[in-house]
Design a protein that fits this description.
- The protein is an alpha/beta fold.
- It has 2 domains: about 160 residues, 3-Layer(aba) Sandwich (Rossmann fold), CATH 3.40.50.720; about 130 residues, N-(1-d-carboxylethyl)-l-norvaline Dehydrogenase, domain 2, CATH 1.10.1040.10.
- It has an 8-stranded mixed beta sheet with strand order 3-2-1-4-5-6-7-8, with helices on both faces.
- It starts with 6 loop residues before the first strand and ends in a 28-residue tail after the last helix.
């Protein structure tokens, strides 16, 4: 399967969906989606990315040789179920690709469900920022037809196949995200400690000299938390559940999840910042009294995943 002459449906063109669309567009792939029940932000991204906008999900399923699901983790199962309801309309040999940040157990469950409706399933995981997929992203794939999805992307993105068992790609996503989010959570705590001592600059400078790779990761990821903290909190819960399903009682992962849930409750927009750096984000957290135990510093009643800086299911 190559990108040329293929039709790919993406549900839905959020930031990552638009990034994947940009990669596929380079391959001459026809892109379709639907904006029914979607927000205006999604509509703008879809039009900018060159999607053909169809009236309904049924129309997307009917038109697409491959449907890629890219939604917040909590929406992954519903989108798969919606696809299954219309799977009979899909072209012969159609594939459903789940590229969400879900645990391997759910990926295996969705694989059985989709295949039970007569369509192929490929488990996928994307590592990297949406804007840099073509240059530094990696697409992990697993499932009996993973090679067909690899062919769809060709050399437009780095692809690694992890075997024929659905769930292995999702497991890799959890493993990678655990390390990166753990580093960011630890950095937030050490940086806030340094801030209290008036040593944030000196600490960051020393970290950069002594641990340049770690600081490259922090500087790439942490500023994006102003927009994506709620989604990353969802992902840390998936990660902790994955470890528990493997028979572990994780301590560090539980703490990482707790830090991310608190970050998801921070109203970053209130700072008035339009562009974020590692330093400005730490300054904002320090000004809010983050992790000091001051109940006024953030609103713990605001459930993770509902922060207005997160991507809603509609977007």
């Amino acid at each position: 399967m190559s990108g040329l002459h293929q039709t790919v449906g993406i549900l839905y063109p959020g930031e990552m969906g638009a990034g994947v669309a940009a990669v596929l567009a380079q391959r001459g792939t026809r892109l379709v989606t639907t904006l029914r029940d979607r927000g205006e932000q999604t509509a703008r991204r879809a039009r900018s990315a060159g999607f053909e906008i169809l009236d309904s999900l049924r129309d997307v399923v009917r038109a697409a040789d491959v449907v890629i699901s890219l939604v917040p983790p909590a929406m992954a199962e519903k989108v798969a179920d919606d696809y299954c309801e219309s799977a009979r309309l899909a072209p012969a040999g159609a594939l459903y690709v789940d590229a969400n940040s879900i645990g391997p157990e759910l990926a295996a469950t969705l694989a059985a469900r989709v295949e039970g409706h007569g369509r192929g399933f490929v488990d996928a995981a994307i590592n990297g920022l949406a804007k840099n997929l073509a240059t530094s992203g990696t697409l992990f794939l697993s499932g009996p037809r993973a090679d067909e999805v690899a062919g769809l992307f060709g050399d437009a993105i780095q692809v690694r196949q992890l075997g024929e068992q659905p769930g292995r790609a999702s497991a890799m996503k959890m493993l990678l995200s655990g390390l990166s989010k753990g580093v960011c959570a630890l950095f937030v705590e050490t940086a806030l400690t340094a801030h209290r001592h008036g040593m944030l600059f000196e600490m960051a400078d020393s970290y950069t000299r002594i641990y340049p790779g770690i600081m490259a990761l922090v500087d790439r990821m942490l500023p994006t938390y102003a927009q994506h903290a709620a989604r990353r909190a969802d992902e840390t819960r998936e990660l902790e559940q994955t470890a528990q399903a493997a028979g572990l009682e994780p301590c560090v992962l539980a703490a990482v999840r707790q830090v991310h849930e608190l970050l998801a409750g921070v109203d970053f927009a209130a700072s008035g910042q339009s562009a974020w750096t590692t330093k400005s984000l730490i300054d904002a957290l320090a000004a809010e009294g983050f992790l000091t135990g001051d109940a006024a510093a953030w609103n713990p009643a605001q459930a993770p995943g509902t922060n207005k800086n997160s991507q809603s299911p509609q977007d």
